[in-house]
Amino acid sequence: MNSFDKFVKVSTNNLRPAKGRLLLSEPLMGDFFFGRAVVLLAEHNDEGSFGLVLNKPLLQKFNSIVKDFPDFDGRLFLGGPVETNNLFFIHTVGDIIEGSIEIGSGIYWGGDIEIIKEMMLLKSITPNDIRFSIGYSGWSPDQLQAELKRNSWLVSKGLNKDILKIDPKKMWEKLLAPLGDEYSYWPNFPPDPGLN
Asked: What is the pTM of this model?
């Protein structure tokens, strides 16, 4: 039983995790990385799962942390607790960036970083086209399934390429809304029930 189950009977949806689906954390998850998080699953198979948290921007601008890149007016995000020394990225321009892997709905993972640097230099890529993260989120085989059984996550298939345009502060709540009245009260819970 997780912390949320102590306060209310939880009903979870029946969607299964899959590449291109989103995970939305239950509202009282107090974890630094995953509290009210939206995670895009880039892969889910028998070997495990990995993806990026989409709604945890860092305060610093991209170029104040990431060196050897042209000026870029975007933010850097915290993608998860794994490999936080490495840079990962998703984008909507897979038709231009060689080596990109489509996750789904016009969202791509990775690709040729030199092409991205050139596009940044030419100002032909914007923060609405690409999202850079340090670290990623990963689960060993069956770990994510165990967390779903504990109702730690909801699975959503609401991914589309406009997801990079959603205000990160409002993303979790905005993506909960289409899941129905059953979850409409979730945003009303305080992130830390001990402060209530």
From this structure: 0.90
